[in-house]
Predict the structure.
Amino acid sequence: MHRILSGIRPTGDIHLGNYLGAVRNWVEMQHLSQQNLFCIVDLHALTTLQDTDNLADHTRTVAAAYIASGIDPNKSAIFAQSHVPYHAELGWILGCFAPLGWLNRMTQFKEKAGKHKELACLGLYAYPVLMAADILLYKASHVPVGEDQKQHLELARDLAGAFNHRFNSDLFPVPEPIIQGPATRVMSLRDGTSKMSKSDISEYSRINLMDTPDMIVQKIRKAKTDMEPLPETVEGLENRPEAQNLVNIFAAISGISAADICARFAGSNFAPFKQELADHLIEKIAPVGTQMRHLLKETSELDKVLAAGADVANKLAATHMVEIRSVIGLLQER
Ligand code: AQP
């Protein structure tokens, strides 16, 4: 059975990277699989919680982004991770089988903990184990994510295999990552070598789904480029990270190939290219933002969608947890 699971942390405004690298692919896939679970991973958000964060609001905003992008609540369960307590339970259990050596290799922990590794919290370190639990709890077969989650997905696959081997069972299917499309890693508009990210302090580093058309034009106009004109071929984008990123975004949002884009703008400066890129973004992104604002006016409706999604998720997770506890040998509750 094909069961898709993925999620986004409610840590800020959903941006073009989240959309192109993840949500847009989910929308296409939801009709191809038998079951879809799209989670708002609020427990993961606690690992980097800021004083200014409003988790409840951000959680609803992510739910609105899913629906406005085209996730159909009648076809896919949309729910908050914290509304299904089994995620935390399985996270603990898997943590007892995750060798520290595996966790020490995780590059995201190194990046996010930065120079102050000793001050980083245990949750940030254990993040990939909870992510493995998110996936294995539902026996998800496919996990569509952006490129940055590849390593965590590999850990989830290793943990599934290690658990199955340890208990001589085939309880967990080994989940397949789906990292596809022309924008698996969208870069910052201010620095073509850094990932576009919600936590970047510069608003001009990203396009948010709720940006107005004016903001989109402003951000694209100010997007960093270099002094060279656009090249004739994609090979000419090598070692030009900002130009490459903008061409990739153009290709992903318009459906035109990078080769055709280069051929069309060859030798031109960035102004007409940026104008057309902004037009494409406004056409695709602005309606999503408008729909999100509309959905966020009726939070009770959003909460109903989240409650219905949590109901589906809790029932499935409860059944699997009984199997998991039994395989481990924990005394079952009567
Ligand atoms: N820049 C990106 N390009 C392509 N895909 C991306 N994703 C995130 N950034 C990009 C994909 O979006 C999904 C949800 O990611 P997340 O928000 O849960 O965590 P993240 O990867 O840590 O995203 P951010 O924006 O960088 O958040 P912060 O700043 O809070 O850490 C995932 O499938 C991810 O691959």
